[in-house]
């Protein structure tokens, strides 16, 4: 496994921790080599150093490596608690995660070794999350389960991992005692913990707890399919190794003959100021649908608003030839931005040669410092070009990053290849008059250097196609995390300037402060200092009857360098598809590395002929893997033909509703302690979550962002396939008295939208039957349940027939929905219901009618002694008499 990128962020002191990283990676490579049966190891690692840190002689310049694409991010957690190593993982089973997050303290403070285990083993645990999309085999919410052998087991894999279940007598765990039993459920209380033996005889599994002397992932033979953990839930009770065996890595590998992996090589990379060149299409293709004017406006917004101060920017135009309009210019202030904006092209004629535009940008870079490594190109074009493949090898060798913006339905099909091979972003913009695609695309090309505090934050991007005398109005919320460099920009299409009104939350009128640019039909307002917190109101009035398109764009930056702003990142699980399966859409809403909960998140997916709007939810159902982790998810499935589909996401936070939380899901297990030689060696208790920190008042806020492009091919016609309801992933079962209660989140008629037609729920005495032979299990009569709309909670209770409910009874359940065409969903997670009779302590008798236990004991002891004496005396007498009688006979 090569080219793994570690990125160090600027927050915190200037300490690379490079030696600690190298030691960790070397150990991880050896551990991974063993765990993968000699298939995988870490070949080389590139470490990105912040540009603001002191330069060292051994630091090279990055090529296409970037913070946004880093595999491992080294950054402080922004709060007092949060040194848990974790992986941001929100895809399905077998789908790669986003990144691994490690803190500087974790790398250098050895106190974490006892808690998480050796660093190299932690890295392999997290790497399995990131690379192969497997899940944890522990469960902090359900640490124990009732096993088929009628005993409680710790949730783990494999079941051969030994240890003891016990409670600490005090917070310091100076002593232990047997686990108490919940008198209602019959299960161990929350104070009960599993302390694994320090030395284990079994060899698996790394995804339970990597700190033990284990060396393997659970495989088909050692896997514990009964454990209620995320691996079983998400991967249909398959073992971790079975999932890895289906990966591209595994299929492309063979076991090595060597007993140890080759050594890992390390490269240190440090970028400088951001260097970008706009490469803009001015061919005759730009004459259609006001593409030229819309591109000018969007590019001007990028120059005036979006690109960060301190960057270097150049401008190139191209049709059949490339031309430099402006060499790289240092953006220092508003004057330098205006100078650059004045060099934007105003042309639309001639043929198209995209490679000439790219080569001209390379000349701009080399004129600056003789290099192209790490420099960025923003390529916007609307035409087809059959010769684009002629410069692909040159692009690869350049080390430059190319972000592509496809304008209209006929833009070159190879654009996404360019961005793909260089690590760039990809966007598209339709010709629809009410589309904001070009502005959205340029706004999406913000800094990827991990500098939260310099990043341009998109608060609002609104657009309206007016009909006669009309207006565009709205409200944009400025929250406490932003406010510096707040800019309002209005664009229009005709020569008549609209009337623009902007009012602060306190009612101050900023309407007269707009700066007008009639040439570009644009007007902008920059709020001095830090913008007032609260709801800002705007209104744009058309004074003539001409139909045109209006836009309002509002951006800002962090209010303070000590606190990161609320941000949103949007993704799709694929960038190309054949429309034979739904696409998963994700929006990660966070403040620094802390998730933001309770927001309203709306996704917009636009093609050349249609626009879909739907909600993304953080409810742990459907496309969403983990509830309340700050990742909002949903499905897109309404394809209407081949072509490009662009994603935009809007987030709205409400005061006293949105709040911060801590990362959940794929993270290293915080072990409570170990059992060794009959003693418990406890670890410090995990720091409690501070409600004061979590209830940080974010106030109302708005955010928008672009999420890239999906390219659909292979469709016949414009009719989307009929997709079944999505899989139920949160089925829950309980036995209450003589009834079984089931609950789950309703899927839709089509994936996660609409209302399913019916449910099929089956039960079995074994988990294996439901997993392997669902149709053979007992069918539950669901005729009395009318399905609800997708997203709502379903409840169903019934009395099972033919099953005697008694203490220790275990029943397993699985479900699936079907649509009106009887197309069935995948089988749900398997839920377990157990009958545990409550523990009833002995009731003491009336004290007045009882005997003191000491007196009773003494009476009992003396009675036994007396009986023994009498018995002994009788035996002796009998022997004496018998002996005497025998002697008389002899006489």
Automatic annotation (TrEMBL):
In terms of SUPFAM superfamilies, this protein maps to:
vWA-like (SSF53300)
Q: Select a single GO molecular function from the record's annotations and give it.
A: metal ion binding
One matching Pfam family, short form? Answer: CLCA
Q: Which GO terms describe its biological process?
A: proteolysis
- Residues in a coiled coil are none
InterPro entries linked:
CLCA_chordata, CLCA_N, CLCR, VWF_A, vWFA_dom_sf
Name the record gives this protein = Chloride channel accessory 1
Gene assigned in the entry: CLCA1
